[in-house]
Amino acid sequence: MIVADNASTDRTAEVAAEFGCRVVAVERRVIAAARNGGARVASASIIAFVDADLQIHPNTFVRIQEEMSSGLYVGGATGWRFERTSMGLKATELATRLFMRVFKVDGGVVFCSRAALDAISGYNEAKHVGEDVQLLLDLRRFGKSQGKTVRLNIGADAVVSTRKWDMHGDWHMFFMLFWPITQRRSMSAVVQDYWYQER
Question: Are residues 97 and 117 in the same domain?
Fold first, then answer.
């Protein structure tokens, strides 16, 4: 287990070390950089990426091993669900799943072979958001060149924290595009505050 400590200001690194995790300091505050930083020191042939606000399913790594052992896939994603429900969250989930179906991607725990990750040069660190979608699209393209594909929704859904919805309201995702106007800030500033705010 590798914990990429992305310039945390709490006891993240200390707690992770206490539980026997290998802690890697990644100072650049970009999600893609944190993921790449962790992957860089990984030695396994299969790598799985877990966000700090996900609860993984008990069978996650068993299912990943089973799917990757088939030889049909270069990687994939486990699938996901919210930790609680409401009308706003159901609407958000519906819209998100529609987007994912169109682009043939998924969320939850993202996994891939070391070889595939190296071949696509990891996560795109120029992206401050959507880097997980980009990775799966890149994996799909690479897989096609190898006669393989990506595997989605493996029956081990990760539980997604609703802390952002608790903070901003259950319908906020539908209004975010208007935040630069209503808050009189650039989209870059809105992104920085939403995904990278200091806590």
Answer: yes
Distance CA 28, CA 93 (A): 30
Residues in the chain: 199
Query: Following DSSP, what letter does each residue of 43-103 receive, concatenated?
Result: -SSEEEE--TTEE--TTHHHHHHHHHHTTSEEEEE--EEESS--HHHHHHHHHHHHHHHHH
What span, in angstroms and rounded, lies between the C-alpha atoms of 139 and 156? Answer: 20
CB-based contact 3:20 (threshold 8 Å): no
Other C-beta atoms closer than 10 Å to the C-beta of 6 total 21
DSSP state of 152: E
Is 190 inside any structural domain? Answer: no
The answer to whether the CB of 120 falls within 8 A of the CB of 138 is: yes
Instruction: Assess if residue 7 is contained within a domain.
Output: yes
Q: Domain count of the chain?
A: 2
DSSP 157: P
- Given a contact cutoff of 8 angstroms between Cβ atoms, the answer to whether 156 and 81 are in contact is no
Residues 15 and 103: their CA atoms lie apart, in Å, by: 37
What tokens does 88 get? 């706003």
Residue among 52, 38, 3, 43 nearest 23 (CA):
3
Q: What is the pLDDT of residues 60-78, one digit of tens each?
A: 999 999 999 999 999 999 9
pTM over the 0.85 mark: yes
Q: How far apart are CA 66 and CA 74, in angstroms?
A: 13
